[in-house]
Amino acid sequence: MKVLVLHGPNLNLLGQREPERYGTTTLADIDDRLTSRASERGASVECRQSNHEGELIDLIQAARGAFDGLLINPAAYTHTSVGIRDALLAAGVPAVEVHLTNVYAREPFRHTSYLADVVVGRVMGFGASSYLLGLDGLLDLLHTAPGAP
Ligand code: DQA
């Protein structure tokens, strides 16, 4: 199983960015943990980060036929991007939405996700562990129902 991991805007700053909220784990640490976890499970991950909506859309489009699943923290684009939502629908690759923080415990504008109803599942509020939980859930699902929307 091959999983594409996408990190949205400002996540390149993890470790330095609002550490009281997002923790001190860096994005490289998260990617390392995901790589190890995937390999323990006989799977692989490719991890990409972009601050640009169009680049994320290009990567999602290219995932069709190239990856079995997608793990995405769209960051701020969660709350704004019809383009990323449409790309997920077009790609048809099962996706899990992850967030480091519990967005429902934050400002009201973060309570809306344009992706919530087009992903197979969502994990939030567990810091870096959200990604690992999301990867495990996605791999479990892919093993039981490969190609599920
Ligand atoms: C985030 C939550 C978003 O609201 C925010 O814009 C982020 C990070 C999270 O992982 O908790 O950049 O996606």
Structure notes:
The protein has 149 residues and is α/β, with parallel strands linked by helices. Helices cover 37% and strands 17% of the residues. The chain is built from 5 helices and 5 strands. The chain has a 5-stranded parallel β-sheet, with helices on both faces. α2 packs parallel to α5 and α3 runs parallel beside α4. The chain is globular. The mean pLDDT is 96. 1,3,4-trihydroxy-5-OXO-cyclohexanecarboxylic acid is lined by residues 10, 73, 75-76, 78, 99-101, 103, 110.
Describe the secondary structure blueprint for this structure:
Layout: E1 2-7, H1 19-22, H2 27-40, E2 44-49, H3 53-63, E3 69-73, H4 82-91, E4 95-99, E5 121-124, H5 129-144
Parallel strand pairs: 1-2, 1-3, 3-4, 4-5
The structure holds 1,3,4-trihydroxy-5-OXO-cyclohexanecarboxylic acid (DQA).
The site of 1,3,4-trihydroxy-5-OXO-cyclohexanecarboxylic acid has 10 residues, from loops.
